[in-house]
Design brief:
This protein is mainly alpha-helical. It contains one helix and no strands. The relative contact order is 0.03.
Amino acid sequence: MTSVSEPPRPRLECPPFEEAAWALIPEVVTQFCRSFLGSFTEISSWIDSVEIRLRGDDARLAGLVDQVSSLEQLMMSRVDTATKRAASAKEVAAEALGELGRIDSKVDE
């Protein structure tokens, strides 16, 4: 078997500054990746801190919800008490009016 070899490729001639630029590409890519990963780490840390604050806010909100619920129960209790007192006052007023009516009818007699 005969093997076919590729013809040699011509080497491009680069000016010296171009060769230096090509030589810097791995370093530039490495620095970019480090910078990007550093930014990613900072963003990740920021997200973690926001998450921790939100958990804290969740706990505070849960506390506020409990307080609001307690206030709501207290208000409903007071409304219930006020309603009962109003009903009692209505009964007392009705009795007083009835008594006044009886007194008025006795005066008329």
